[in-house]
Amino acid sequence: MSREYDDVQLSTPRFGARTLTKLALTVSLVGGALMAASPAQAQGPYERGPDPTDAILEAGRGPFSTSQTSVSSLSVSGFGGGTIYYPTDTSQGTFGAIAISPGYTARWSSLAWLGPRIASHGFVVIGIETNTIYDQPASRGRQLLAALDYLVEDSSATVRSRIDPSRLAVAGHSMGGGGTLEAANDRPSLQAAVPLAPWNLTKSWTGVRVPTMIIGGEADTVAPVATHSELFYSSIPASSEKAYLELNNASHFFPQTTNTTMAKSMVAWLKRFVDDDTRYERFLCPPPSGLSIEEYRHTCPSS
């Protein structure tokens, strides 16, 4: 039976400068400015795409058309190459970017469905190949950061021109999820992190300040949530924005096949914190529910 609850002791979220600006704008709009403002004036500077709906977030593709390009390991430093997915639209300004790592012994092909899905919601995505398939979480974290650096500094002009280098994020599966925590801990300027069924021998992440959504599987026997995801979530400070989504009866390998609940929550988190797009808050707070969700913890404001 699914259960969901607020972490009552974590009821006050931390908001960055851009978030505070957005909140002030929202208050003024509620006070009456919305009636007078044009749609362009009402939008935040990083909002991309139409007003979100459940149907848009649950579809196999978002509102943006995408292209992709391969990156050879011979042309990069610090990671093993990979595949870049990016929106073809150039009319809405630049986009945030996210690097995603596969897990132990896995290649990017195990998560490849995520690339175009996330990119189609208005992000540049690089799915990386690791230097070796046996790389541990700390190494995968460094490789995620190297991939982001490559995107903003050395990728093709077509890709680079679409990226806002101040709006970057990381994600990964299993040891790649553990690497996501490593990257978030090492680079607090990141805007979001999404570890998927994360595995790491380090259990305490008190240094993480990046808004982090951890997604775990109830039936995971490789990285059981009781000794991995739940401990990671609990250790992140109360002053950091965070959420923990546990998928009902999901194994360790849930990210390797299309998973609508995971993708919907992941996109909403990225849109909210990479794009500062408060239109997506309603998909995160109040807590999402449904048969596919075993548990949800969060730092949403108290109602």
UniProtKB/TrEMBL annotation:
Entry-linked Gene3D superfamilies: alpha/beta hydrolase
Localization annotation: Periplasm; Secreted
Main location (coarse class): periplasm
Highest taxon in the source lineage: Bacteria
InterPro entries cross-referenced by the UniProt entry: AB_hydrolase_fold (IPR029058), FrsA_esterase (IPR050261), PET_hydrolase/cutinase-like (IPR041127)
Catalytic activity: a butanoate ester + H2O = an aliphatic alcohol + butanoate + H(+); (ethylene terephthalate)(n) + H2O = (ethylene terephthalate)(n-1) + 4-[(2-hydroxyethoxy)carbonyl]benzoate + H(+); cutin + H2O = cutin monomers
Keywords: Disulfide bond, Hydrolase, Periplasm, Secreted, Serine esterase, Signal
Enzyme class: hydrolase
Cleaved signal peptide residues: 1-42
SUPFAM superfamilies reported in the protein's UniProt record: alpha/beta-Hydrolases
Name the UniProt record assigns to this protein: Poly(ethylene terephthalate) hydrolase
